[in-house]
Amino acid sequence: MKSIAEHEKITPPAGSVLAKGMYGKNPLLLRARRLLLGKQGNDGLIFKFFTYYLLICIGFVYLYPILFILSQSFKSMDDLLDPTVMWIPREFNLENYIQAWQVLDFPKTLSTTLMNAALPAVAQTISCALVGYGFAKFSFPGKPIFFVLMIITFIIPAQVVMIPLYLLFENYGMTGSSLPFILPAIFAMGIKSTLFILIYTQFFKSIPVALEEAAQIDGAGRISIFFRIVLPISVPAMMVVFLFSFVWHWNETYMASLYLGDAMSTLPLKLQEFNDAFKNMFGGSQAASAKTDINESIKLAGTMLVIFPLLVLYFVAQRWFVEATDKTGISGE
């Protein structure tokens, strides 16, 4: 009589009784199979090797530019001209950061940049939550039409409406200040607001309806439910919206130069003018000017000062960021 395995023409699992019978005469083969493939096929050495190899490759692609900037920013002129000095400078030249700090006028420019990035980010985090909650939990006439119109505002390029918006803000005397960024954010508009509303809508749909119904039975109104129940459990989504909004407002240069003009400046705008500003501040003789043109370390030190606050922010908020992207299904840009 044939065995069950021969009759069914299948290979028994590694941990089954049949497998033990098949490999019983050769336990080393069974151990090697378990070591390479694992008990369930996804916990063996082969699977782990390819997983970690992929993670290392992706991590290298993201970390290499930052490590390169950090390494180059500490090099002196001699190290830059020496082809034998690759990653680690012979001596760490902090003078690059001191000069870049002065050229960027870092304390003043940082405060201006934070005002143009943090305040709109906070406003969008709250206002987009209200709109997203309405789309996720309420039914009202024309809801599909409003939703489509909102998507259209995301599809239309920002360059199309930039000049009309500038003329609007100019007529109301808002240019030269942060109001062109703050006021639209208060009303769930501004940079990428449609994406933030979609993130909130997706997140709020995952909240059980029974939780809100229980609060209504206890006498809580819609506003009370939103601020006392929904928002406290929506911290991950709020962190993602705040991070995205903060970073996009921080890196915005074209609209910032258009709206702010000469009245204010941000760190990315200062970085664009870094070469000329450095020459005006430290350039003197023709030899000194020529030396300035080839000094990439000071430029990269300025770049590192501009991106350092964002790196700190991501490091602090990474736990909520990963949790919310997993729940909402929205990936970062």
TrEMBL record:
Xref: SUPFAM superfamilies: MetI-like
Keyword vocabulary terms for this entry: Cell membrane, Membrane, Transmembrane, Transmembrane helix, Transport
ABC transmembrane type-1 domain boundaries: 110-317
Primary location class: membrane
Subcellular location, record wording: Cell membrane
Protein topology in the membrane: Multi-pass membrane protein
CDD domains xrefs: TM_PBP2
Residues annotated as transmembrane: 49-70, 114-133, 145-169, 181-204, 225-250, 298-317
Similarity comment: Belongs to the binding-protein-dependent transport system permease family.
Protein name: Carbohydrate ABC transporter permease
Organism: Fictibacillus fluitans
